[in-house]
Amino acid sequence: MSVTDGAAERLAAFRSALAEAGVDGMIVPRADEHQSEYLPASAERVAWLTSFTGSAGTAVVLAEKAAVFTDGRYSLQIETQVDGSLYERFNTADKAPSDWVGEELESGATFGVDPWLHTDRQLERIRKAVEKAGAKLKLLDENPLDVVWSDRPEPPAEPMVPHPAAYAGMSSEEKRGEIASKLADAKVDALLVTSAESIAWLLNVRGEDVQNTPLCLCFAILASDGSAELFVDPRKIGNSVRAHLGNAVTVRAREELGEALDALASAGKTVRIDPESAPAWPMERIRAAGGNLDTEADPVILAKAVKNEVELEGVRAAHFRDGLAYARFLCWFAARAHQGGLDEMTLVERLHGFRAEHEMFRGPSFDTISGAGPNGAIVHYRVTEESNRDLNPGEIYLVDSGAQYLDGTTDITRTLSTGVVGEEEQRCFTLVLKGMIGLSEAVFPEGTTGGQLDALARHHLWAAGLDYDHGTGHGVGAYLGVHEGPQRISKSGGGAELKPGMIISNEPGYYRAGAFGIRIENLVVVEEREIAGADRPMLGFETLTLAPIDRALIDLNLLDDGEIAWLDAYHGRVRDTLGPDLDPETAAWLIDATAPLAGREKELA
């Protein structure tokens, strides 16, 4: 979208709808009722209103003023897509939407909120900002933006499909029983599950309602006896999935959720709703009905994060399959990169093509980041026809991509050379590599969080006066979301304790604006470690990703013997695992790409 495509008319129509609804302003987040990472087209309200298409955006519209907020990933995009004469544009690091509301909303005004699009915690922050301004908050029964969005797409109605226990490792009955037992122990009668990913895991189902993640958008109530009610568009439920769900799962229309919550409240039942992940609407409904709310965390989130052995075997198989496709892509790239004639979009399509040849491939796990030269310095860059850039010899190329297979989800980043590169690029690449190796080799006691490990990935960059602004690691699902919690590795701290079976990314980087970007990413799984003489249980990481790291970008003078040994061992594993299943040309290339560094004479500094 451009800033001249009717944004002014849409803003004027929205303001009229706000007046009809009896409010003087409203906050419009990029969110749906499930707080999904990827939204169906029918929920892309911020994009429709403002023309901003980034994955993180919030609009606030008052009678005379309006603003759009995003984070640093989209600072350039917001400038080009959002009309500055209509909206003030802010980086959320500088000003939060709630702060702006508190400053700009007039005393005595009424401010509207759609309680389906904000969590209870988010709603509380908005409420405080509105009260600070001396105004009144109004929870709206109907979103005024939806009233004037005349060409709004229909909500998705793709069929729900069973996810076999051969991939899930546990039946839905077993999972429901496990979670129900935790509810009973906590004296909770029912759990409202609003996350589509949690429902997919709990009921062993998948869908196609959003891009990149195999989800069916729906709600569920799990009772403490293990039975469940599924609230879903009935068009999505065929005979096969009804048989899969069984008699203990009752299928009801989405619109009946409020009635079900009222019934629980009037019966005096205690209902758990996670205030961090659930929309505020059901919590307000329970409160209005005089029900008993339990606001602890959704127990499905942690259970989903800790993969069982069947899931882990599937994930390993997916990474093997992905490694074969990636090796073919790297071999193809190496034969052409130094010649020129490649561009970012062509590389996305070619990588996708190699993966798509396997029958278990179900699509990308996120939109591929394909950044040549200075575009690689844009951390969450998405190539478009307008931004598409040719690769020039001597530049470095960053490609961050992933795949969904029926048995696992992958996410890998490699930074690649297109010929002889400069010493500074080599230095920075090697510092990033040292951090990735340091985190890969980490051994740590039970109870450790990812925040406590983050410095291992940054240590060498910090010593050189460098850093990166994104997290070092995010959780990854098993044929589910490529970004999942509660585990993470971040210098901001937090995150859950790392437990055996959790999959997490290891992805330090460095970015020099206008010049180049570097990131190296493997997925790892937390595993138990036997340490002789240890006085407490210890953990470490098994690396899942199988792909060479570009040796042409390494400054050997900056690696110590232990780091060289780690890289040689990793490359040996990649070569031995993938080589027998590759075509002769790719297998020969892989032997060269993974040749040992150990024993090489180091260059003089």
TrEMBL record:
Belongs to the peptidase M24B family. Gene3D superfamilies: Creatinase/methionine aminopeptidase superfamily, Creatinase/prolidase N-terminal domain. This is Aminopeptidase P family protein. The keyword Cell wall biogenesis/degradation does not apply. Residues 537-597 form the Peptidase M24 C-terminal domain. GO terms for molecular function: metal ion binding; metalloaminopeptidase activity. Residues 10-133 form the Creatinase N-terminal domain. The keyword Metal-binding applies. Residues 314-528 form the Peptidase M24 domain. GO terms for cellular component: cytoplasm. CDD domains: APP. It comes from Nisaea acidiphila. Pfam families: Creatinase_N, Creatinase_N_2, Peptidase_M24, Peptidase_M24_C. It comes from the Bacteria. Keywords: Aminopeptidase, Hydrolase, Metal-binding, Protease.
